[in-house]
Amino acid sequence: MVNTKSSQIYCCFTNKKVILQKNVTTMRKKFIILFGIFIISYFSVCLANDSKQNVYYKININEEINGTTWLFLKNGLEEADQLQAKGVFIHLNTYGGLVIFADSIRTKILNNETPVYVFIDNNAASAGALIAIACDSIYMRSGANIGAATVVNDSGEKMPDKYQSYMRATIRSTAEAHGKVAVINGTDTTYRWRRDPRIAEAMVDERVVIPGISDSMQILTFTAQEAVKHGYCEGIYENLDEIITQSLQDSNYKIVEYKPSLFDRIKGFLINPVVHGILIMVIVGGIYFEMQTPGIGFPLLAAGVAVLLYFAPLYIDGLAETWEILLFIIGIILLLVEIFILPGFGIFGILGIIFALTGLTFSMVENDWFNFERVPAKSLSMAIFTVFGGLTGAVLLSVYIASRIGHQGAFKKMALETTQDLDKGYIGVDTAQRNLIGKEGIAKTVLRPSGKVLIDDEIYDAVAENGYIADGAKIQVKSYAAGQVYVRVIK
Questions:
Q1: d(CA 386, CA 360)
Q2: pTM of the model
Q3: Which of 124, 197, 263, 357 has the CB geometry, 3.0–4.6 Å to 132, for a possible disulfide?
Q4: What DSSP string describes 111-166?
């Protein structure tokens, strides 16, 4: 006989046990899933926080202000924009440099959307002071200095007042660009310059007197403590980390440093105005000596390399446009046409000179098809000065070298000095042309300087003593040397 009641109780107990086991298994699965979600979320938050670190970009300027430092800063600011940096730090330690590049750096900083801070590690003198004053905030290491922005030449001598006047206005307007701040005293509100323009001006001109600050008739230079006291420094810190954590109050950040390449350094060197002037001298001198001694090839090769070194960095940097380079090439072609094809020196020669010089000059400034609205007057004047300075130097150097070849010094061996004696097997040339000295005739071709002349119904090879004689001009034989007749135009 089966006990139905007991069987029912056992079955009920068994079913509850199975249900309980299923519930426990289900809870374990849910716990594992929830734990996995927690772990994934935790690491995702950590990674997200790490990826959201504020980027501060660092650009080092620890040398003379020149084309290289200008290129570094421009590239650095562009890279900082790509990284969406919260701020840019210029780690500055310089005694100054070229004002034209300091002015370009200053303008770039003032117009930059991302805040630019400067950390003066030791010195911000002369052009360095101008750059520092342009920055949104100035921080200094203890013992650092800022000021002494008088314009001087390469020898350290003070430049004439017209240069000082421009520098005074530039540094004053730079200080004014930071505006004024409100000073509340009880119920009264006054406004003062955030950076007093008169203080900036006193860093250039010792004649600027500011009672209690600059009244000793000397160029003004601030120590770190003095700069803080008079509003030219936001604080004294020993490194960038202190500035970011204490002054900017940011604890979640990382610093990315600009790393210039060798190519950047070479390009920066080549865009220096002094180097540009030297390259122009090589271009003009190379073309001149190639025309004087056709067939040698080396002067023309040197000129070609100089052209490449002149235009390549400017083109890569976005200053030289294709039309400016073509303008220079067209100018050279017109000059060659005038020299080797057309007689005299006319419209082709004049246009050639104008086109070539225009191409060299305009490639140095950022103009848009002769639109100079965005080109500072100083940049344009510097470009013109560089081109014409290089041209003048090339002419003077060419004349000097030509007068020294075969005579003395390093140029003596550039001319043949060996005596070709008859007893050694050398055969002399006919010297009958020596009798032509003093006779008159006409030029049968253009002499540049070599050509042909007609004397006593005979045609002779001749050389123009002054370098050029037009076709058909009346000539007179002035001398005879080394089998060559030398002639001059009869006036």
A1: 10
A2: 0.63
A3: 124
A4: T-SS-EEEEEEEEEETHHHHHHHHSSEEEE-TT-EEE----B-TTSPBPPHHHHHH
Quote the Cα angle for 459-460-465, to 5°: 130
The count of other CB atoms within 10 Å of the CB of residue 258 is: 18
Phi, psi for residue 11 in degrees, rounded to 5: -65, -40
Tell me what the mean pLDDT of segment 384-398 comes to: 79
Contact predicate 139/237, CB 8 Å: yes
- What per-residue confidence (pLDDT) applies to 100? 82
Q: Is 329 exposed, middle or buried (0-12, 13-18, 19+ CB in 10 A)?
A: middle
Is 429-489 a CATH 2.30.30.240 domain? no
Nearest partner of 199 among 183, 190, 182, 178, judged by Cα: 178
CA atoms within 13 A on the CB side of 351: 11
User: At the topology level of CATH, where does 54-260 sit?
Assistant: 2-enoyl-CoA Hydratase; Chain A, domain 1 (3.90.226)
Cα–Cα dist 74/68, whole Å? 10
Q: Is the peptide bond before 313 cis (omega within 30 degrees of 0)?
A: no
To the nearest 10 degrees (0 to 180), the angle between helices 273-292 and 377-404 is 40
Q: What backbone torsions phi and psi does residue 139 show, to the nearest 5 degrees?
A: -120, 145
Contact 61, 131 (CB under 8 A): yes
Task: Of 56-70, 153-167, 354-368, 474-488, give the range with the top mean pLDDT.
Answer: 56-70
Q: What is the pLDDT of residue 285?
A: 81
- As separate numbers, helices (DSSP H) first and strands (DSSP E) second, the chain gives 14, 15
pLDDT in tens, 131-153: 999 999 999 999 999 999 888 87
Highest mean pLDDT: which of 63-72, 289-298, 379-388? 63-72
Tell me how crowded residue 449 is: count the other CB atoms within 10 A of its CB.
17
